[in-house]
Structures are given as C-alpha cells and as structure tokens.
Design a protein that fits this description.
Length: 302
C-alpha cells in the first residue's frame, strides 16, 4: 500500500507548481516601473541621453550581406505582417478551443503597440545631448516584433513553446539591434518597448488565470533546452553591456575618447540582447499555466 501510494503522489515541487495570480501582477508592476526608470535615466538626464545617443551613432556596418539582412528584417516588420501574425495567433487559440488565449493574445498585441505609439507621440524629450532629433522612445518596430512573438508563445501548445520562444527571441534581438544600427532608435527605445510588451503580456496572463483559476493545475516549467541558452546569453551580455555602458559614461564625463563609437554601439547591442533574453525567460514562465487534465472549463479544452 505504501508503495502504491508513493506512485500516486503529485510530481515534485521542483518540477511543477500551481500557477497563481500574484506572479503576473508582480511582473506587471516591475516591468512598468522599469519602463519608467528607463525613461527617467536615458531621456530626462544629460548623461543618459549622451550615452544612449553615442551608442546609436556608433553603429558602423559596412558588410554588404549584413546590411542586406538588416534591411530585409526591418522592412519585413510592417503593419500587414503584424495583422497576419495576430490572425494566426487567434486562429490557433480557436482551434485549440481556447478562446481566452486568442483574446489574451489580441490584448497583448493591440495594447502593446497602441501604448507604444501613444507614448512616442506624447512623451517629452528635452534636448540635453546636443543632438536635435524628435522623440523616438519607445521603439515601435521592437514592440511589434516582441508582441507577435509573445502572442505565438501564448497560444501554442506547451510542447513547442520553448522552441518558438528561442526563435522569437533571436528575431526580436535582430530587429531591435537593427533599429539602432539604422539610427531609427537608441538602445533605451528598444529596451522600453520590450518592457511594455512584457507589461501587457503580464496583464493578459493575469486575466486568463483569473478566468480559469479553478481549473488550473500544476504548470510545467519551460524546458532546459529553451531556458539554458537564454540564461547563458542573458548573463554574459548583461555583464558585458553594463560594464560597456559604464565605460561609455566615463568617456562622456571623465576621460574623453576613452572608448570609440563602435564600442558604444556594441555595448548598447549587448544590453539589448540581455533585455531580450530576460523578457523572454519571464514570458515563458508566465505563459506556462495549464488546465487540469480531464476538466472542461468554460471556453473549451486545452
């Protein structure tokens, strides 16, 4: 009897945990606060603007094949492609009989991109760095790419979410860095866009979990094949990027010409990559809520 009982026990706590409502709320608040902090540091201060702009102006890519790839990637992120991916995400949710996921994905995409455009139009950017340019905070291209990637991760089955998240993270990183290379955006614009998408994704996740809370079972953590590369890349690029930005700040304030413009661009690109890895890691964890086997809650089955 003891042996049989031990086999019927729930999976270990290290492998599964019951998804709750607190995690998406905490993530929402932290992501929104980080967006505000990014604006205050890199838009409202002279040093922040100077470091940010130098990273943007230091991009020098002369390789023809690299330029061709970046141009195609940026030009492919259009309103039409955004709408098409939204329709695909909604269709997947309907086919899985998960209308809540379809609605959540639509909320995520529309809310993210709508709020980014509103902020870009209404936020004030004082000219503190002697580089007259209109406000570009946050990045619309980055928000579009990240929101559709998040939406696909949300609506797809658990078994393939990790693979899709890795592919999506790579695509979003290329888009974000390409906008800086093209001098369309500064690094802070892209980081803020990622945080805004994570904020809306957290809100959508909270709504889905609240609506199906009684039928939620223990959720599976994302597989190591998906998380380990993001953790490794995120850790390395975060340390590299932060140290690089510190060197750029020293060059701006203490030791002129300490680092080159190319160095500043690479430091900004490292920070962008770290932000992409971090937001996708959090999103995979938030999107892992499952429905208890054998239940048929309102709105369909898994």
């Amino acid at each position: 009897m003891t042996v049989l009982a031990s086999h019927e026990q729930a999976p270990p706590a290290a492998a599964t945990s019951r998804p709750g409502l607190l995690a998406p709320l905490v993530t929402l608040v932290l992501a929104a606060a980080a967006t505000f902090a990014t604006y205050q540091v890199f838009i409202r201060t002279t040093l922040g603007q100077s470091v940010d702009t130098r990273a943007m102006r230091g991009a020098e890519v002369h390789h023809p094949k690299v330029i061709e790839v970046l141009n195609r990637t940026l030009n492919g992120t259009t309103l039409v492609s955004l709408v098409l991916v939204c329709l695909v995400a909604a269709a997947i949710g309907v086919l899985r009989k998960r209308i809540d996921l379809a609605v959540g994905a639509a909320l995520l995409v529309l809310g993210s991109n709508g709020s980014v455009q509103l902020l870009k139009t209404h936020l004030i950017r004082p000219h503190l760095d002697q580089f007259p340019a209109p406000n570009s905070f946050p990045s619309g291209h980055t928000a579009a790419a990240a929101s559709v990637a998040f939406a696909l991760v949300m609506v797809l089955p658990q078994a393939i979410r990790g693979t899709v998240a890795l592919i999506g993270a790579g695509y979003v990183a290329v888009i974000a860095i390409a906008t800086v290379w093209a001098a369309w955006h500064r690094p802070s614009d892209t980081v803020a866009a990622l945080l805004i998408v994570l904020t809306w994704g957290s809100l959508a996740t909270f709504g889905i979990r609240a609506g199906r809370y009684r039928s939620l079972a223990a959720s599976r953590r994302p597989g190591r094949l998906a998380t380990l590369p993001l953790i490794a890349i995120g850790a390395v690029t975060a340390v590299t990027g932060l140290l690089g930005l510190a060197a750029v700040a020293l060059s701006e304030r203490v030791t002129p010409d300490l680092v080159s413009g190319r160095f500043a661009f690479l430091a900004g690109a490292a920070c962008i990559t770290a932000a992409v890895a971090g937001t996708f890691l959090l999103w995979m964890r938030l999107a892992s809520a499952e429905v208890a086997p054998g239940t048929t809650p309102q709105g369909g089955t898994t």
